[in-house]
Each structure stands twice: as structure tokens, then as C-alpha cells.
Design goal:
Largest sheet: 4 strands, mixed
Radius of gyration: 18 Å
Number of helices: 12
Distance between the termini: 48 Å
CATH class of the largest domain: Mainly Alpha
Order of helices and strands: EHEHEEHHHHHHHHHH
């Protein structure tokens, strides 16, 4: 039996839900949005974030590791290429998510969507809401609460995703997918990040200059697992929140792009 501890809008949970859907694996949902700091959940995942996968008696954390575990435990249909060199290329895409992309998408999302909510918290509320296990992310949060779009972290995050899109544009010149012409964990893991860039208004500003990435986005959105892993979990409230946030962020995003 598989149990997934997650909540709808978490990017890392989205990529695990896509992988499970691609494998057509049944799983039980354990929603944790209001329970991340509960003693019971922290016993499963001391970092206090999602996702966490429980397979029978085994607990697996960290979304990239979870997806690699799913691929190993349920090898068909395959989400990794056959050739070792192509598996290495998949790893180069997925590794950079952990290295820098996830922290930078946090910067963009927090600044555009959640900053104002944090600004009105009491000191006690803020302490309980700050990231638990990552001191860098915790410090970034405090910086963004104070400076918002004016923080250098915001401009750096925009620049990081512009570089990602340039790399994807080049990789997709002669292939519909990121590695070896086949849909793989590289495509699975990056899909939620492009979805988030669309949500916060960055991708619409860059779509015209990245036609290959645009074709890739259309292709991943056409897969049934995109709906299963992401869209089916989006509420009307979420859509409205991101729509308003993207409209407010647009001039700041455009300014950051113009300085690159």
C-alpha cells in the first residue's frame, strides 16, 4: 500500500503525484497542510514539509528521491532512459532543482503570493510559520518579508529561471522531451515549476521568446497525468489568489527581466 502525505499546491507533491499517475499506481491521500508541525507528522518527516511517501512500512522523503524510488519499485512504464548516459542527463536536470531551482521558486512564490499574509502575523504566528529545517530558507523568508520585490533575492530568482528556460529551449530544439526524445523524470520533475511560473506571471512574459519550451509546455499539459497530478487539485480560491498575485507582480517581473 502507498500513502502520500501532501497538500495540493506544494510543487514537490505535484511532481510525485504526476509520477504516480504516470505509473498508474493507486495510492491513499493523507492531507497535511494543517499538520506539518504536528508530533505525529514530524515523526515521519522531521523536516516538517511535504511530500512523504509511505510504502508498506518504509518511509521515503524528498520528492526527487521519492520519484526515483517509485521508478525503481514500479519500473513499468519506464520514466528513465535505457542508456546510462541518458540517465545521467536526466539526473543533471533533476539535480538542479534541489541545488537552486526550488529555493528560487520559493522566493518568487513567497514574494508574489504570500508576503502580505506574513507581514500581518504576530511574532508568535510568524515563528510557527517560518521554515523549520532550512536556515537559509528561513533567512530568505525574513528578508523577503521586509523588502519584497525590492530584495536582490527576487531579481536573482528571476534570472535563475531565465537561465533554466534558455537551457530548456536549447535542449528542446531537436526533441519533444528534455532527454533522448522520451518522456522521463526530467519532464515530470520540471513540469510543476513551469506551472508555477505560469501561475505567478513570469512564463507569460517569456513565452514568445521560448517557442520550444512553449511546445513542451503544451505537450506536458496534454498528458492526462498533468490533470491528475496538478489541475484536479486546484481550487477556485487558488486560481483567484494566483491571478491577483500575477497581475500585481507583472511590472516587477518585467523590470527584473529587463535588467538581465
Amino acid at each position: 500500500m502507498l500513502e502520500l502525505y501532501h497538500f495540493p499546491a506544494a510543487i514537490c507533491a505535484q511532481k510525485v503525484r504526476i509520477a504516480l499517475a504516470e505509473k498508474n499506481i493507486p495510492w491513499e491521500s493523507r492531507m497535511t497542510l494543517n499538520e506539518l508541525r504536528s508530533p505525529a507528522y514530524l515523526r515521519l518527516n522531521p523536516n516538517g514539509y511535504v511530500p512523504t511517501l509511505v510504502h508498506d512500512d518504509s518511509v521515503i522523503t524528498e520528492s526527487r528521491i521519492i520519484n526515483e524510488y517509485i521508478e525503481a519499485a514500479f519500473p513499468t512504464p519506464a520514466l528513465l532512459p535505457v542508456r546510462p548516459i541518458d540517465r545521467a542527463r536526466v539526473g543533471l536536470w533533476t539535480k538542479q532543482i534541489d541545488d537552486s531551482l526550488h529555493l528560487n521558486v520559493y522566493v518568487l512564490t513567497f514574494t508574489t503570493v504570500f508576503r502580505e499574509r506574513y507581514r500581518i502575523m504576530s511574532p508568535e504566528q510568524l515563528e510557527s510559520a517560518l521554515p523549520l529545517a532550512n536556515p537559509i530558507k528561513r533567512q530568505y523568508t525574513l528578508e523577503l518579508i521586509e523588502h519584497g520585490f525590492g530584495s536582490p533575492l527576487f531579481a536573482l530568482a528571476v534570472a535563475r529561471f531565465c537561465r533554466l528556460l534558455a537551457d530548456m529551449e536549447a535542449a528542446l530544439t531537436h526533441s519533444p522531451w528534455l532527454v533522448d526524445g522520451s518522456y522521463s523524470l526530467a519532464d515530470v520533475d520540471l513540469t510543476p515549476y513551469l506551472h508555477r511560473l505560469d501561475d505567478i506571471g513570469l512564463w507569460p512574459l517569456l513565452r514568445e521568446s521560448h517557442p520550444n519550451v512553449g511546445r513542451w509546455v503544451a505537450a506536458v499539459q496534454a498528458r492526462p497525468t498533468y490533470k491528475t497530478g496538478i489541475i484536479d487539485w486546484v481550487t477556485a480560491e487558488d486560481e483567484e489568489r494566483y491571478h491577483l498575485a500575477a497581475a500585481a507582480a507583472r511590472p516587477h517581473l518585467a523590470t527584473a527581466i529587463g535588467k538581465i
